[in-house]
Structure formats: C-alpha cells, structure tokens
Structure to design on (201 residues):
C-alpha cells in the first residue's frame, strides 16, 4: 500500500510511505505558512518517492487538535488529493503521532503529550504504550493552561508531530482506520465573523 500522509496541526509535515516504510518526508516547522507550503511539500515528496498521484492508495490526514486555519488547509488539501487520485482517505488524531514515535523508540510507561495551542494554552493527551502498533490514548485530547495540566508520574517528550508517524499508525490500523475527517478544534476559531452593522430603515 502506498500512503500519502499530511499534517498541518502545527507546522506542515508531509510523508510518502510504502506500507510501514518511509519513502520521503518533508517537515516545515513554520506554523504560519501552511497554504504556501502544502502544495510544494506534497509535490516534492511524491517526486522523491518516484510516485505519481495515481500511485497513492490511501491518504492520511492529521485532524488535530490544532488551530482552525492550519487544520482546514491540511484537510482540504488531503480531500482534493484523494479525489484526484481516487484514493481512500482516513483521519488520525495528530497527538497520536508524537506518542507513536516516543514508544516506537523503545520507551515505556505513561506519557503526557503536549503541543502549543496558543492563547497561553496547550493541547494535551495521555497515552499508555502501543497496542498492535497503535498508540493507546487513555485521556484527552483536551486543551488547558499549562499550570492546569496534571503531570505527576507522567513522562514527557519534546518530539513533534510528523506525517510519517501518522502514516505508520494508519498502516497498522488497516481497515480499522477512521474515515471521520472532522477536525478536532476543542475551542472557537481565533477570528469570528462580525455581526455586521445595524441598518436603520
């Protein structure tokens, strides 16, 4: 199975995999340039993997939690690519990718995964190892101020979300991977439409 994996929950991460093997990956940590980066990252990863869009069987998209605009860019790109390539598409919680890389390195125990949610808050989730190659999430995802998150007896990591980890999780899930692409926002968008001006008449 050839997989294109995308995540824009923080920066822009794109990977192409053959089953569990990473063929190409691009990670751009800039959290403000998703729209400018996503197209070229997909194109360059496909070129490095020596694949054309029609060679992709499954598209994997990180559904957050993350900021409103970033998630929308990634999910829209994944949907359009899947339609054009006639590929199936599945969604994975972005925080799961960090837990996967942590446990896949041989570490064990309960893990607290945190990412910057802006507004002086963090997105977080707690994990307890891998089950058949898939991170076992026991709490979250949620959002809170850093001082409100319980950290006692929990390991922590500075790993970031990678599209390659999401792709590998989706491979291990097989046909159990979720087709629900609803983004995990956990709060209202940073910008809300105005109510407009009152017009007297």
């Amino acid at each position: 199975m050839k997989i294109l994996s995308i995540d824009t929950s923080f920066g822009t991460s794109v990977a192409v995999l053959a089953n569990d093997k990473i063929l190409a990956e691009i990670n751009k940590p800039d959290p403000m340039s998703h729209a400018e980066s996503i197209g070229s990252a997909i194109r360059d990863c496909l070129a490095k993997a020596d694949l054309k869009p029609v060679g992709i069987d499954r598209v994997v998209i990180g559904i957050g939690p993350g900021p409103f605009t970033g998630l929308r860019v990634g999910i829209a790109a994944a949907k359009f690519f899947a339609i054009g390539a006639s590929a199936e598409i599945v969604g994975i919680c972005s925080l799961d990718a960090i837990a996967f890389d942590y446990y896949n390195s041989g570490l064990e125990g309960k893990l607290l995964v945190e990412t910057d949610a802006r507004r002086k808050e963090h997105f977080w989730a707690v994990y307890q190892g891998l089950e058949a190659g898939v991170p076992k999430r026991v709490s979250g995802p949620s959002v809170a101020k850093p001082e409100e998150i319980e950290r006692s007896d929990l390991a922590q990591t500075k790993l970031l979300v990678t599209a390659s980890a999401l792709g590998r999780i989706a491979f291990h899930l097989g046909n159990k991977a979720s087709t629900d692409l609803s983004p995990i926002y956990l709060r209202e968008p940073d910008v809300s439409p105005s109510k407009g001006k009152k017009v007297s008449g």
